[in-house]
Design a protein that fits this description.
Layout: H1 6-37, E1 61-67, E2 72-77, E3 81-85, E4 91-95, E5 102-108, E6 113-118, E7 122-127, E8 134-140, E9 147-151, E10 157-161, E11 166-172, H2 174-177, E12 189-194, E13 201-206, E14 209-214, E15 219-225
Antiparallel strand pairs: 1-2, 2-3, 3-4, 5-6, 6-7, 7-8, 9-10, 10-11, 12-13, 13-14, 14-15
């Protein structure tokens, strides 16, 4: 008959109990470490502010244009934002990098393009043919023009210095602008514009005449009766 040793059994139970106690203590220590890693207070780095949706009419609108063919409405704002509206549910948001106010918008009909003019003297050409509108070209102009043309009801044109807002003393008289063969008064000045090809020339319209004047030659070049 095989003998049963009670001492070995007790030693085995003691070893198992010690191992279980050690494992339980290790698990409790790991749980305590995990709890110490969890921060119960929220910090500023836990948050990030971002725009998820835009709704309603654009804030501070400053320019508007409409494409009658594509049925697209473009609205520019004083913060340089550009909103495009199509059929219900179709909307696109774009932003000029400079953030300058949009003062003029013009669609290029059947060209899939839009031109935006900003208050910082820049022009931007937008490509609307792609899924996300993007700027193709940009132009920057310098404000070198210091003179303002002012037409009067008597048919004369006065030159004003924009910086000092004073008269320069240079006056284009009506009888120097039209042909000498015409003795009748041409009427009041109704329109004045620069010649884009020659800074020394200016074009202007009387009520009955259309003329062009050359500053350096100090005489009228052409005149047409309307």
């Amino acid at each position: 008959m095989r003998k049963f040793n009670i001492r070995k059994v007790l030693d085995g139970l003691t070893a198992v109990s010690s191992a279980a106690s050690a494992s339980s203590a290790s698990q409790q220590q790991q749980a305590g470490n995990r709890e110490s890693d969890i921060q119960e207070t929220l910090q500023s780095e836990h948050f990030q502010l971002c725009k998820t949706v835009r709704h309603g009419f654009p804030y501070q609108p400053s320019a508007l244009a409409f494409d009658p063919v594509q049925k697209i409405l473009a609205i520019g704002t004083q913060t340089g934002a550009l909103r495009l509206f199509g059929r219900p549910g179709v909307e696109c948001y774009c932003q000029h990098d400079s953030g300058a106010a949009v003062i003029q918008l013009q669609f290029l009909i059947n060209e899939g393009a839009l031109v935006s003019a900003l208050a910082d003297d820049t022009l931007h050409l937008w490509n609307l043919r792609q899924k996300r509108p993007a700027i193709l070209h940009s132009l920057k102009f310098n404000r070198e023009r210091k003179w303002l043309y002012v037409g009067t009801e008597r048919g004369n044109i006065h030159i004003v210095n924009v910086e000092s807002f004073t008269l320069s003393g240079y006056v284009i008289m009506w009888n120097k602008a039209i042909e000498l063969s015409s003795k009748s008064h041409p009427g009041p000045i109704v329109h004045i514009s620069d010649n884009p090809m020659d800074e020394g020339k200016v074009g202007y319209n009387y009520f009955f005449f259309k003329c062009e004047y050359h500053f350096f030659k100090k005489k009228g070049l052409h005149s047409f009766r309307l």
